[in-house]
Amino acid sequence: MAQLSPLVYWSQTKQTLQLKVDLKDAKGAIADFSPVSVSFSASGHGARGVNAYKFDLHFYSLIDDEQATFVVSDNKIELLIRKLEPAWWPRLVATPQKPHWLKVDFDRWRTEDDVEQENEEAPRDVRQDYEKEYNDLQRQELGYVKEKTKKVYLMFYNLAMFVGYLYVVSVMGVLYYRDGYNSITKTYAHVGNAFKFVQLLQYLEVMHPLFGYTKGSPLVPFFQVSGRNFILFLMIEWEPRMHAKPVVFYVFLIWSLVELIRYPFYLSQLLGREVGLLTWLRYTIWIPLYPMGIVCEGIIVLRNIPYIEETKRFTVEMPNKLNITFDMVLFLKLYLLLLILPGTYLVMSHMSKLRAKKLGRGRGKRRQLHAD
């Protein structure tokens, strides 16, 4: 069955793009943005009646895909996009030939002349403008498509991490099936080393943005990975009495389930494949799992406090050569306070914004727009 594309009307300013998708009563809208393209799909009443519609656009120049979002209303869907560099584009798409379903939104249209700007088209790379045709030519000539080294590395990294967490969950599942609830206390003994290995490997995700392999700040993955490793190594590994606690089973399971969705999602993005269910899970499964994970981490810290009071582990007392003191018990209490209050809010609000950007702003926003 041929792919159906809705009518799309576009307009621009020097800094932004706006795409209006002519779909009424849209459901299941997904817009997947990359720096050079957008892939959109939704079901609704469009030019061909009530159907599933989809389109892909390769932009004329780069966009800021981290800031791109979309809003669903009763009679249309609007994609709001910010250009990476402020400039007037001579056209929306990379190729001179535009899709027949792409129209100009004359109601909002502005030209460079309106603001007395110079209109000169810079030299373009034909391989990027005709990416699909160029890849097809490579397949015909070479039998495969040459991929960039960075992309190949990231594909292997994400696949390896997925296999690592899948191994952990599989072993935990087999043990639980065989031994029932009694297996929970043996979790760390069976998968502890494997879990420590994959968690340490995640520090590579701190290096990726530093070397330009991924976008964003290295601080975000650093704090995320370090937070987990603080629990794993200092709170569990260093305290043998924690190894058999049931909470270790639950925190391993929660962390692994998050990663078993995240890494396949990254793989699909690298391969340019949009899997609607996987995208939905990536930006939805955190809603139940993150609060449960925070509770489990809090319990682990709380259970460690009497152990550290007893052993004085990581505590520095006077007198000493450096003439400093450090109370690990007080630190853990402050850590709990920060984890439960501002930490939870920051993580949940960040993920909520990402979900709104990727999956739309939901029915509440649709009602608000309709009322306006």
UniProtKB/TrEMBL annotation:
Report TM segments: 156-177, 248-265, 285-305, 326-348
Membrane topology type, per the record? Multi-pass membrane protein
Stored SUPFAM superfamilies: HSP20-like chaperones (SSF49764)
Q: Which GO terms describe its biological process?
A: fatty acid elongation; sphingolipid biosynthetic process; very long-chain fatty acid biosynthetic process
Q: What GO cellular component is one of the record's annotations?
A: endoplasmic reticulum membrane
Q: Which GO terms describe its molecular function?
A: very-long-chain (3R)-3-hydroxyacyl-CoA dehydratase activity
> One of this protein's Pfam families, by short name?
CS
Work out whether the entry's keyword set contains Ribosomal protein: no
Quote the subcellular location field of this record.
Endoplasmic reticulum membrane
- The signal peptide annotation in the UniProt record is none
- Reactions accelerated catalytically: a very-long-chain (3R)-3-hydroxyacyl-CoA = a very-long-chain (2E)-enoyl-CoA + H2O
Keywords assigned: Coiled coil, Endoplasmic reticulum, Fatty acid biosynthesis, Fatty acid metabolism, Lipid biosynthesis, Lipid metabolism, Lyase, Membrane, Transmembrane, Transmembrane helix
Specify the pathway: Lipid metabolism; fatty acid biosynthesis
Task: Provide the CS domain boundaries.
Answer: 3-93
Location, primary (coarse class): endoplasmic reticulum
* EC number(s) per entry: 4.2.1.134
Tell me its family. Answer: Belongs to the p23/wos2 family.
Role, per record: Catalyzes the third of the four reactions of the long-chain fatty acids elongation cycle. This endoplasmic reticulum-bound enzymatic process, allows the addition of two carbons to the chain of long- and very long-chain fatty acids/VLCFAs per cycle. This enzyme catalyzes the dehydration of the 3-hydroxyacyl-CoA intermediate into trans-2,3-enoyl-CoA, within each cycle of fatty acid elongation. Thereby, it participates to the production of VLCFAs of different chain lengths that are involved in multiple biological processes as precursors of membrane lipids and lipid mediators.
The name under which this protein is listed is: Very-long-chain (3R)-3-hydroxyacyl-CoA dehydratase
